[in-house]
């Protein structure tokens, strides 16, 4: 499967729009002067320093993966929402744009790797606001232990891996954020048990930094590592870069505006972004009677398809059901460019097109 085959307008098993297609291959994480590349390299430095010569890095793996790689290989249950067409971009019924870098765990294990980092663009259908964008970037980390590693420790393999995992990731958080307060929160992931989230206290709030855990035995067994244990973690680069660089809106990562790009340079983590201008948002409301198939993700895709990166937020502001059982939603759409002021005319045009497409594509009844 090559990139050119990704958008198939008439194929009902395909839900990849042009706006997403155009992002494939841009690889922001491989630009050394981009905040995502700077963050990636800083994390590399930590692993190189803590484990000299051990972690192999993959930042160029193809984002088109099979449903087996994305879901089955990492034990995502058959009925998990992430498998739905509402949440994931399908190229055809067997192929998706990966929704997480965990999709590569199994193949890299089978290739014999024991310590690796995977960095890449990941894709998710989602709502629209300043921290959510349908393409973002993740880093996956994986470390395998053999019985020799834990035999003298007085711990079983799982406890040994969990201890090493926590120590390693606390070190990473300190490397990125300095001496911050941290806490571990128990959670659930299909591919790890036990599973944890690491949070740090940063600028007055608890911030989730990453998810991690001790890899399910079944994954190791199926991929040539019977009797081994492993830990894994996954983190979102944008989320961390937004707080480290003070970047207020996730769309900025995609900006080619010199006033954005010129503020960052190789090796300089945490240089604070200076907004070059702040244009006012323009709000437009839209109400309609929804139908059974209506989802907010589908609405957002329509809006993004028309307004592109000029849409800042799509927010449900009113929701009621009448006596006949019909449900009405009112959405407020915020239009704002990061780079220039928008004219009334272009906003009105966009809103008119949004209304027409919402009516025709989502088959809802505008009020
Ligand atoms: N794949 C998870 C996600 O996208 C992140 C993650 C959590 C990766 C725990 C891991 C892990 O490897 O152990 O939300």
CATH superfamily of the largest domain: Bira Bifunctional Protein, Domain 2
Work out the helix count.
11
Strand order of the largest sheet: 1-5-6-10-9-8-7
State the shape: globular
One letter per element, helices H and strands E, the order comes to HHEEHEEHEEHHEEEHEHHEHEEHE
Detail the poorly predicted runs. Answer: none
Rg from alpha-carbon coordinates: 22 Å
Fraction of residues in helix: 25-40%
User: Can you tell me the CATH architecture of the largest domain?
Assistant: 2-Layer Sandwich
- Rounded mean pLDDT score: 96
Task: State the distance separating the first and last CA atoms.
Answer: 43 Å
Task: Domain count, please report it.
Answer: 2
Structural class: alpha+beta
What proportion of the residues form beta strands (DSSP E)? 25-35%
Give the key terms.
367 residues, alpha+beta, BirA Bifunctional Protein, domain 2, Alpha-Beta Plaits, 4-stranded antiparallel β-sheet, 11 helices, 14 strands, 29% helix, binds 3,4-dihydroxyphenylalanine
Can you give me a brief rundown of this structure?
Belongs to the class-II aminoacyl-tRNA synthetase family. This protein is an alpha+beta fold and 367 residues long. The protein has helices at 18-21, 35-50, 67-70, 105-110, 147-151, 157-177, 217-222, 237-244, 258-261, 296-307, 344-362; strands at residues 56-58, 64-66, 90-92, 95-97, 115-123, 135-145, 181-189, 192-202, 205-215, 229-236, 282-289, 311-321, 327-335, 365-366.
């Amino acid at each position: 499967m090559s990139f050119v085959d990704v958008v198939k307008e008439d194929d009902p098993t395909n839900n990849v729009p042009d706006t997403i297609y155009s992002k494939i291959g841009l690889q922001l994480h491989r630009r050394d002067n981009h905040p995502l590349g700077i963050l990636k390299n800083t994390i590399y430095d930590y692993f190189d320093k803590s484990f000299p010569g051990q972690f192999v890095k993959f930042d160029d793996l193809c984002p088109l993966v099979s449903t087996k790689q994305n879901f089955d290989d990492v034990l995502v249950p058959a009925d998990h929402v992430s498998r739905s067409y509402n949440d994931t971009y399908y190229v055809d019924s067997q192929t998706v744009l990966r929704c997480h870098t965990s999709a590569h765990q199994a193949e890299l294990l089978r290739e014999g790797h024991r310590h690796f980092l995977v960095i890449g663009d990941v894709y998710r259908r989602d709502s629209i606001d300043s921290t959510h964008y349908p393409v973002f970037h993740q880093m996956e980390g994986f470390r395998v232990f053999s019985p020799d590693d834990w035999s003298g420790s007085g711990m079983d393999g799982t406890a040994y891996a969990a201890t090493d995992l926590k120590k390693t990731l606390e070190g990473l958080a300190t490397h990125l954020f300095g001496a911050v307060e941290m806490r571990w929160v128990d959670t659930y992931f299909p591919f790890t048990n036990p599973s944890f989230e690491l949070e740090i206290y940063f600028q007055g709030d608890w911030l989730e930094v990453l998810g991690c855990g001790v890899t399910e035995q079944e994954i190791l067994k199926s991929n040539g590592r019977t009797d081994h244990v492993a830990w894994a973690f996954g983190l979102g680069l944008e989320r961390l870069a937004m707080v480290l660089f003070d970047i207020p809106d996730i769309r900025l990562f995609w900006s080619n505006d010199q006033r954005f790009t010129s503020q960052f340079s190789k090796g300089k983590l945490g240089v604070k972004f200076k907004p070059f201008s702040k244009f006012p948002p323009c709000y437009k409301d839209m109400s309609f009677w929804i139908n059974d198939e209506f989802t907010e993700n589908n609405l957002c895709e329509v809006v993004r398809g028309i307004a592109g990166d000029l849409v800042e937020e799509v927010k449900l502001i009113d929701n009621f059901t009448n006596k006949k059982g019909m449900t009405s939603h009112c959405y407020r759409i915020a239009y704002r460019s990061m780079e220039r002021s928008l004219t009334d005319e272009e906003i009105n045009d966009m809103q008119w097109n949004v209304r027409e497409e919402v009516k025709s594509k989502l088959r809802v009844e505008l009020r």
